[in-house]
Amino acid sequence: MPASTDLVRLDVCGDPADLIVRFINTLDVEAGTDVLDTVDAWQSWLSAQGLGASFGRESARELELARELRDGLRALASGARAQVWQVGIQVALTDNGEVELGADTAVGLIAAAAAKVTIEKRLDRVKICPADDCRWAFYDTSRNHSRQWCSMEVCGNRAKARAHRERGAPA
User: Fold this and answer.
1) Residue 64 three-state SS
2) Distance between CA atoms of 76 and 124, rounded to whole angstroms?
3) Helix runs in 120-155, H state only
4) Helix (H/G/I), strand (E/B), else coil: 72
5) Nearest to 18 by CA among 140, 102, 100, 135
6) CA distances from 64 to 52, 59, 108, 130 (A)
7) Distance between CA atoms of 139 and 92, rounded to whole angstroms?
8) Which helix (DSSP H) or strand (DSSP E) does residue 101 occupy?
């Protein structure tokens, strides 16, 4: 196990819930694109998140683990049960008695983000838009956790317009 100074700590990525949403959205159903289709694309995404230099060059195996983790997080965000997956993270106790999560791999850091959000009881706020042509992940900031759509202006309005047309259609 690496020393805690060798770890990339979770605090480098801002709010871990935001990192999870961005990671889930590496699969764009509407556009039909997947950032995790190649190691180079995965490496570019990590660089765009400010994590590219933290872990070195990613491998095909790490890319496969990233896809598995993303699929599991997508399932959880959709309200389904996800398969159990194992990804290495480390827990370090700081001098001031706080707990830090970290990892020595990019997938481990994203798993650490998911663990932190789960511990904070916020994972249920990471959701997937129910629109079949969207399926975009978002973080529900509503007070009562009731937000359904990634965007009320786009997906929500489409759904409301569709429901209105269906109510007005002759039987």
Assistant:
1) helix
2) 8
3) none
4) helix
5) 140
6) 17, 9, 13, 26
7) 27
8) strand 99-103
Q: Which residues contact 100 (CB under 8 A, 6 or more apart)?
A: 4, 9, 10, 11, 91, 92, 93, 94
Alpha-carbon distances, residue 150 vs 37, 69, 77, 80, 153 (angstroms): 24, 21, 12, 18, 9
Q: Which two tokens stand for residue 60?
A: 């095909």
7: confidence class by pLDDT, cuts 50, 70, 90:
low
Whole-structure pTM value: 0.83
d(CA 76, CA 97): 31
pLDDT category of residue 163 using cuts at 50, 70 and 90: low
Is residue 94 within 8 Å of residue 9, measured between CB atoms?
A: no
| pLDDT tens string 97-132 | 877 888 888 999 999 999 989 988 999 999 999 988
In this structure, the chain runs to a length of 171
The amino acid present at 74, given as its one-letter code, is: R
The predicted pLDDT at position 29 comes to 87
The SS3 of residue 132 is coil
At 118 the three-state DSSP class reads helix
